[in-house]
Specification:
Length: 498
C-alpha cells in the first residue's frame, strides 16, 4: 500500500472534518492524528474542515475547542477556516450554494430528484413498514413527478428535499485499506436525502462534494461510516469523479467491551488534560489504539510517529482504551521532563493542597517527579505534609520490612534522641544517622525506616522514603510527629492490655 501512495498522486491530502458539538472525544483525536501522520509522512497537506450542517447539534464555542485541541496535540493544519487556503470556505454552512448547485446537476443527469412529501406522509410510510424484515425505505412517490408538477411545486415554494436515486438491482462494492473489499446489495439502499428542507446538505452529500472539490486523496474516518460508503461511491460515480482511498479505523472500546461514550463518563481530550495527563503522552497513547508500529517500541515523539506510521499497521480489531496504560505512559513522559518543567506543571496542584508555608515547594517537586504518573494525583499524595492524618497503628506491621507494633515502638524510641541531636538536617545526614543506629541496634535498615516513615506520614504509601520526607518536613515537625507516633503506640498497648 505504501508504494501505491507514492505512485498515486503528486500530493497526499487528508482532512479532519469534525462537527462542532462541544468536545473532542478520543476517537476524533485518533482520526485527526492518523490523517495528520499520513499526510506528513509523504510531504502532503492536512486540512481542517468544520462540518456544521446539522445546526441542531451545533454548540457555541465548540469550534474554539477544536482549534485548541489540535494545537495542544501538535496537529498543525495546512488549510482551514482560521488560516484559509485555495479550497475554501472550510466551513460547510458557508458552502450552502455549492451543494445546491451540485445537487441540481444530479437531478439533471437523472441521479437525483425532488421530493415534496411532508412529514406526515413519511411517518405513514415508516409506520406501514414497521414490523417487516425489509429495510425502511422511501417509496419513491415523487420520483415520477412530471416536469410541470415539479415546477408548480417550486413556484408555490412548497418545501422539498433532494434525494439520490439509488440502483435497485445488483450490488455496489468499495475497497478499504483496512477492511478490504466490501459489497452491499443495492436493494438495501434507501434513496438518501442529499439536500434537506432547510437548504443545507446532509452529512453524506457534503462530504463527497467537499472531499472532491478540496482534492482529498485519503479519507480517514471511523468504521461507523463503513455502511455509508457505498452511497458515497455511487455519488462519485454519478458525478464521474475519482474515488479517494478509504481508511476506516476500528472502534475504540472500554475495557468492559462497550464503546467509548461521553455520556457514560469516558474522558474527552480536554478531560484528560484537566486530569493531569500531558498532551504528548495522550497523543502517543492514542496513536497505538488500533495501530502497530511493527516493533516493541511504545514511546514516540511526533517526528518518530511520522517516520514509522503506515496505514498497513492499522488493525481491524477494536482497540481498548486502558486508562491504566495511559497513566503508565504519562509517567514515562513526566520523568523525561526537566526538573524545572515538572515543577512548573506541579505548582498549580500545590495551590490548595500545600498549605504549610515552611515547606519548600521545589523540594516537594524533586521528591514527586520520579513517583508521579498523573499530575492530579499530587494533592492526595502530599496532603500529609500539611497535617499528620489520623492513622491506625496496624500499618506499622509490614511483612517485607519485618516490622510490627512492638519493634516499631522500640525503633521510634531509639530514633528520637538521635534525630533531636542531629545538627545538619538533610536527606543524606538523616539517612546516615538512622543507618548507623540500625547497625548499632543490630536490626534491618527497614525496621528503622518503615516505622519512621509511618510516624511522620501516617501513610503506608508515600511519594518518598522516610528520610526524604523528614528533610521536607523539617527537623521540628519531624520530631513532633515521631513523638506523636510513640504516644500512639503506647496508647495502643494500654488499650490492648486493659
Amino acid at each position: 500500500m505504501e508504494g501505491d501512495i507514492r505512485k498515486m498522486q503528486n500530493e497526499v491530502r487528508t482532512r479532519f472534518a469534525p462537527s462542532p458539538t462541544g468536545y473532542m472525544h478520543i476517537g476524533n483525536l485518533r482520526t485527526a492524528l492518523y490523517g495528520y501522520l499520513l499526510s506528513k509522512k509523504y510531504g502532503g497537506k492536512f486540512i481542517l474542515r468544520i462540518e456544521d450542517t446539522d445546526q441542531e447539534r451545533y454548540v457555541e464555542g465548540a469550534v474554539d475547542v477544536i482549534y485548541k485541541t489540535l494545537k495542544l496535540a501538535g496537529l498543525k493544519h495546512d488549510e482551514g477556516p482560521d488560516i484559509g487556503g485555495d479550497y475554501g470556505p472550510y466551513v460547510q454552512s458557508q458552502r450552502k450554494n455549492i451543494y445546491m448547485e451540485y445537487a441540481k446537476k444530479l437531478i439533471e443527469s437523472g441521479a437525483a430528484y425532488y421530493c415534496f412529501c411532508d412529514k406526515e406522509r413519511l411517518e405513514q410510510i415508516k409506520g406501514a413498514q414497521d414490523g417487516s424484515d425489509a429495510v425502511h425505505k422511501y417509496d419513491r412517490h415523487c420520483l415520477n413527478l412530471t416536469k410541470q408538477e415539479i415546477e408548480k411545486n417550486l413556484a408555490e415554494n412548497k418545501p422539498f428535499v433532494i434525494r439520490q436515486k439509488m440502483p435497485v438491482q445488483g450490488t455496489t462494492s468499495f475497497d478499504d485499506v483496512v477492511y478490504g473489499t466490501i459489497t452491499v446489495d443495492n436493494s438495501e439502499l434507501d434513496d438518501q436525502i442529499l439536500i434537506k428542507s432547510d437548504g443545507l446538505p446532509t452529512y453524506n452529500f457534503a462530504n463527497v462534494v467537499d472531499d472532491h472539490l478540496m482534492n482529498i486523496t485519503h479519507v480517514v474516518r471511523g468504521n461507523e461510516y463503513l455502511s455509508s460508503t457505498p452511497k458515497y461511491n455511487l455519488l462519485y460515480k454519478a458525478f464521474g469523479w475519482e474515488i479517494p482511498t478509504y481508511v476506516h479505523l476500528p472502534l475504540i472500546l472500554r475495557p468492559t467491551g462497550q464503546k467509548l461514550s461521553k455520556r457514560a463518563g469516558d474522558p474527552s481530550f480536554e478531560d484528560l488534560i484537566s486530569m493531569g495527563y500531558l498532551s504528548e503522552a495522550i497523543v502517543n497513547y492514542v496513536a497505538l489504539l488500533g495501530w502497530s508500529p511493527g516493533s516493541t517500541q511504545e514511546i514516540f515523539t511526533m517526528d518518530e510517529l511520522i517516520q514509522v506510521f503506515s496505514i498497513d499497521g492499522i488493525n481491524k480489531a477494536p482497540a481498548v482504551f486502558d486508562i491504566v496504560k495511559l497513566s503508565w505512559m504519562n509517567g514515562e513522559y513526566i520523568r523525561k521532563l526537566s526538573p524545572d518543567k515538572f515543577h512548573e506543571l506541579a505548582v498549580p496542584y500545590y495551590k490548595n493542597s500545600l498549605k504549610n508555608n515552611k515547606i519548600v515547594p521545589e523540594k516537594v517537586s524533586a521528591l514527586l517527579q520520579a513517583r508521579t504518573d498523573v499530575l492530579n494525583s499530587i494533592p492526595e499524595n502530599i496532603d500529609f505534609l500539611n497535617q499528620l492524618p489520623d492513622y491506625d497503628v496496624s500499618i506499622y506491621t509490614h511483612k517485607k520490612s519485618k516490622t510490627n507494633e512492638t519493634n516499631s515502638l522500640e525503633s521510634l524510641k531509639a530514633a528520637l534522641p538521635v534525630l533531636q541531636q542531629l545538627e545538619k538536617w538533610d536527606n543524606d545526614s538523616i539517612y546516615q544517622a538512622l543507618m548507623s543506629l540500625s547497625e548499632k541496634l543490630e536490626i534491618k535498615n527497614s525496621q528503622m525506616l518503615w516505622p519512621v516513615r509511618i510516624a511522620i506520614s501516617g501513610k503506608s504509601v508515600t511519594p518518598g522514603g522516610a528520610t526524604e520526607i523528614a528533610e521536607i518536613l523539617g527537623k521540628d515537625e519531624t520530631i513532633v510527629r515521631i513523638q506523636a507516633g510513640i504516644e500512639k503506640l503506647y496508647r495502643f498497648y494500654v488499650l490492648k492490655n486493659t
